[in-house]
UniProtKB/TrEMBL annotation:
It is found in: Membrane. The lineage of its organism: Eukaryota, Metazoa, Porifera, Demospongiae, Heteroscleromorpha. Keywords: Membrane, Transmembrane, Transmembrane helix. It is a multi-pass membrane protein. PANTHER family: GEO07735P1-RELATED-RELATED (PTHR13531), TMEM (HUMAN TRANSMEMBRANE PROTEIN) HOMOLOG (PTHR13531:SF6). This is Transmembrane protein 17. One of its GO terms (cellular component) is membrane. The chain crosses the membrane at residues 36-57, 63-82, 94-113, 125-146. GO terms for biological process: non-motile cilium assembly.
Length: 180
């Protein structure tokens, strides 16, 4: 491939990249939006459920359950903030933190639902069901969004190298990205 063809290919790739402005994931953003409105009634119902079942718990499960609830509430608020920040502003670090906290949140909620020693109330079972759905969808869409965002950031990085005077000898590396 001669130099003129490489420059033409580079210009076409730059035009294709500049057309794609937003990489944020719509389904992830929708589930985050609905999850924010759902999280406050979810937290309130878990606190009511803890108050109702606290006297029936074994002594060591009282401490464990309270600790899990405190971690759940803290992680939920931080997770939703990082999800919004990472998805809308296309920040890879925040989105990766959101994804990891979502996995942690899923494990903690499954612990509360599956463990028979935590005395599962029907109220808790009912409110944790939709949250588990949100978490599963957010894990899948968050991972896909993270992959697309990393790919877009790599392409932006390579383009910035080309704009700042780097040679066109590595233009073939741009071919590995799906730009169309």
């Amino acid at each position: 491939m001669d130099k003129a063809q490489q420059e033409q290919k580079c210009c076409c790739s730059l035009v294709a990249i500049q057309r794609v402005e937003v990489v944020s994931h719509l389904l992830l953003q929708m589930t985050l939006h609905f999850n924010i409105y759902y999280s406050f009634p979810w937290m309130l119902s878990l606190i009511i459920g803890l108050e109702l079942k606290f006297s029936f718990l074994l002594s060591h499960y009282k401490y464990v359950t309270v600790a899990v609830y405190v971690i759940l509430f803290t992680v939920e608020m931080l997770r939703l903030y990082l999800g919004y920040e990472g998805n809308l502003r296309e920040k890879v670090a925040e989105l990766a933190g959101f994804w990891l906290l979502t996995v942690l949140q899923l494990l903690l909620v499954l612990y509360l639902v599956v463990n028979v020693n935590t005395v599962l109330l029907p109220l808790e079972f009912a409110v944790n069901g939709p949250l588990l759905f949100f978490l599963f969808v957010q894990i899948v869409t968050g991972f896909r969004s993270l992959q697309l965002m990393i790919q877009a950031q790599k392409v932006k990085y390579h383009i910035s190298l080309l704009k700042f005077g780097q040679s066109l000898q590595n233009i073939e590396k741009l071919d590995q990205f799906d730009l169309n």
